[in-house]
Amino acid sequence: MAATSAGRVLMLCKQFNNVVRISSTKQSNNVARLSSTIPSLHTGVCLTKCQSSVSRQNTLLVQSRPLHTSVCRMGLDEFFDLPENWGETTVKSGAPWTTTLLRSKSNEELHKLWYLLLKEKNMLLTIEQEAKRQRVPMPSPERIKKIERSMQRMDKVVEERETALRLLQTGQKHARPADWRRNLFGKVVWHRFREYAIPWHLNSKYKRSKFYTPAFVEPHIRLRKEKELRAWSRKADLQKKQLVKLKERFPQMQAAS
Q1: Are 185 and 153 in a shared domain?
Q2: Is the dihedral of CA 161, 163, 165, 167 positive or negative?
Q3: pLDDT score at 153
Q4: 105 domain residue, yes or no
Q5: How crowded is the C-beta side of 202, counted as CA atoms within 13 Å?
Q6: Res. 62 pLDDT band, cuts 50 70 90
Q7: What is the pTM of this model?
Q8: In which domain, by residue range, is 35 found?
Q9: Phi/psi of residue 159, each to 5°?
Q10: Contact at 8 Å (CB) between 24 and 35?
Q11: Some GO term, biological process aspect, for this entry: which one (predicted)?
């Protein structure tokens, strides 16, 4: 009986080893390496743990995808020009962006182009400061003006699009509503509305402080208008005198006129 029971135990151990060997061949290379270092008595338990850890890693890799960004350059190289332009008196550069070209771009492209221009401007300002420190002329300083013009035109294009969208949605031309109002000094100014807890037509204190002209200011308003008219007439007379002198000096201007 003892011999038969011992034979059955040996048969079961052989079958268990065969099952473990077959399952180990189906695992990945990482699991195979880990299983080779584990003692044979605890092979089955450790294999299940390794399988669960590998599956968790795979799920984490699928969920965390890499973010696509531009090339990362460590250091201060981004604030300086290309090495081949170092020591040059002139650097070739293109023309500034025109309004027509910017209007053909999408909002996403304008957003990317704005940061490219801003990066280029920071680089040029760094070069300008370094040239001042070394007391040498900056190579092609007109590049800064080109960048500034391009950014101003981009602001204009974005403002045009915002105005068109606002006119389509609300019918208002200005982003902030405003109106012509008379201030304390009697001048008619373009007043931009603000947000208050009380409407402006119910806020008596606000009306008194903003839209009330005292009686003693009226004579000064008349004197100010008189001064402006005299300055305008003096300027017109000066232009007429200059035109007369030019006609006396160049008689052919009379025939052309």
Answers
A1: no
A2: negative
A3: 95
A4: yes
A5: 4
A6: very low
A7: 0.49
A8: 2-52
A9: -65, -40
A10: yes
A11: mitochondrial translation
